[in-house]
Design brief:
about 220 residues, alpha/beta, TIM Barrel, eight-stranded mixed beta sheet, 7 helices, globular, binds iron/sulfur cluster
Length: about 220
């Protein structure tokens, strides 16, 4: 497991908290709209930050930041190695040092075993057809959603509104899949070089939001 990036201070990666953010290398998806493409399959030679360096950095900033966001790549592919880092950070910085996990939802076993080790979880929901667009099981994603629905840990679902993956006719199915979830955010897609150059305008996002609200989903545009 390699820590390939560190944002020293972020106001946007943890709701209402000032945190640092780390980026772990490696991802089991290959989303067309990925903004962290270099992290999907990083070269072995890419320089990384050691766990000890990270912990000493966090200790030095303990009076400024309230926690750490762990993102990727897809952090959960590292399983117990990730959890051992989380436990090390909590033991060195205190249990009140908050740790948030960002995940693509591909690892329900990890969430079942370890969701409780985090203080907040953000899971992406990318499409109603993972099989077609990401060569992945839609059922596994639903399993992760169900685990989060039943956890006591605060969590949110984020949907990047990438036109090739999400269309107006999907809204009712999305509403059914996300039924019972309190915090869902629609995020605008920001075009990347190898992705679609089409974006949804704000009025269209508002229309999608209204359809989801009418179907019982509590949702905001971010
Ligand atoms: S899951 Fe995230 S890191 Fe992985 S390819 Fe998709 S957008 Fe990129």
């Amino acid at each position: 497991m390699k820590i390939l990036g560190l944002v020293k201070t972020s106001t946007v990666d943890y709701p209402s908290k000032l945190v640092s953010t780390i980026f772990l290398g490696g991802c089991n998806f290959n989303c067309e709209y990925c903004h962290n493409r270099d992290l999907i399959k990083p070269e072995d030679s890419v320089p990384s930050i050691s766990e000890d360096e990270l912990i000493s950095f966090l200790k030095g900033r303990r009076n400024i930041i309230e926690g750490l966001c762990i993102t990727g790549g897809e952090a959960t592919i590292w399983g117990e190695k990730l959890i051992s880092l989380v436990r090390k950070i909590k033991s060195e910085l205190g249990n009140d040092f908050l740790i948030k996990l960002d995940t693509n939802g591909s690892n329900p076993n990890f969430l079942r075993d370890y969701a409780n080790e985090f203080d907040y979880i953000a899971m992406d929901f990318k499409t109603t057809n993972y099989k077609k667009y990401l060569n992945f099981s839609d059922e596994i994603i639903k399993e992760s959603l169900n685990i989060l629905k039943n956890t006591k840990i605060p969590y949110e679902i984020r949907i990047t509104m990438y036109p090739p993956y999400i269309k107006e006719e999907d809204m009712e199915s999305i509403a059914k899949i996300l039924e019972g979830i309190d915090k869902v955010f629609l995020q605008e897609y920001k075009p990347v070089e190898f992705g679609s150059q089409e974006i949804y305008s704000l009025p269209i996002l508002e229309k999608f939001k209204d359809i989801l609200i009418k179907n019982g989903v509590s949702i905001e545009i971010r």
